[in-house]
Amino acid sequence: MLALNSKLPEVGTTIFTTMSALAAKHDAINLGQGFPDFPMNQQLVDAVSKAMLNNYNQYAPMPGWMPLREAIAEKIQYLYGAGVDPDQEITITPGGTYAIFSALTAILSPGDEVIVLEPAYDSYIPNIVVNGAKPILVSLNPADFSINWEAVNAALSASTKAIILNSPHNPSGAVLKENDITELQKLIRKKDLFIISDEVYEHLIFDGRSHLSMLRYPDLRERSFVCFSFGKTYHCTGWKLGYCVAPAELTREFRKIHQFNCFSCHTPSQVGIAEYLQHRDAYQELGGFLQQKRDHFLQCMKDTRFRFLPSYGSYFILASYEQITDEEDAAFAIRLTEQYGVATIPVSAFYQQRVSQKLLRFCFAKKESTLEKAAERLRNL
Ligand code: PMP
Ligand code: GLN
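That is the input. Now the predicted structure with glutamine docked in place:
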């Protein structure tokens, strides 16, 4: 057998794959991996089907179907007051994860450092390592998962090339506030950094909060790769379609990576989404819709011994199980799946050192009946 020198020797199978497989094996309710179990919008399904029937079945242009990029630019102008050039500043990608990977690959050289705030979405660190660069881990404040800017500043070095931000945040549901933007603006004045901004949950934001996209702030935007996902916006995670918005000069480098990796994305989905993006209600109502789900889930779970932390955005909410058991979170999540028929995600999976804080992540983007059934099972704990 030919010897292979692994680029990621410490990486195994993702926790999302592992827990979804375990859920399937035990016929458990899957509140682990983040995907909706309710149907997506039929009008969008019809628009994509129509595109296929109308023969939009060959390669789209490398940067993406132009009417889709134009519709995205219009949406960004409307939501964030930013003029983005659809020709030179928007690239359609096969999902948000790919956009983040391509942005990191475009900017990183071996030895560079990237600041990663933990708990962190699981793809960030391997994406950095595979490029020969080094993740510099900074913990979010344990009480509310806000950013410890003092620690971020202390983590800077001559090799720091970028910082990755994610708001609304997976797994905690924390969101950026105005003071975070001020701190970030101070940071970039001190150190010339790229920003990789993971904004896949831009519309999933609750309790009257606004999404503080990097695109709102010219001084931040000029150094940012802002990554989005249609999977999250339109309840079609399986379509794996997203986009990256970055200034022309950065987009040029981004596309050099993209054109020799994926080259171009699924054409009929792009044609259908371009048409459907005209319906502003579809994305504007999303926050309220998910907020109701969050509140329904909390109501259903109030007689359990889980203690929920606040979630202001995303699909997710964290719960402490301190009052239930001393087990490590990974072991407890497995036992819950096997014995109680409810799958969750242990939060230690979002930390490189796998520290267990007795927290589980629940995905509430589910039908009310699913949430009710899960709560009923967890009441027995
Ligand atoms: N970033 C975060 C924080 C996520 O939770 C997800 C979820 N999938 C993604 C990126 C990736 O989105 P996509 O499925 O479009 O790649
Ligand atoms: N983003 C989803 C989550 O956090 C999972 C995506 C994946 O399975 N890679 O649950």
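The pocket of 4'-deoxy-4'-aminopyridoxal-5'-phosphate (ligand 1) is lined by residues 34, 95-97, 121, 166, 170, 198, 200, 229, 231, 237, 240, 242 (CB under 6 Å).
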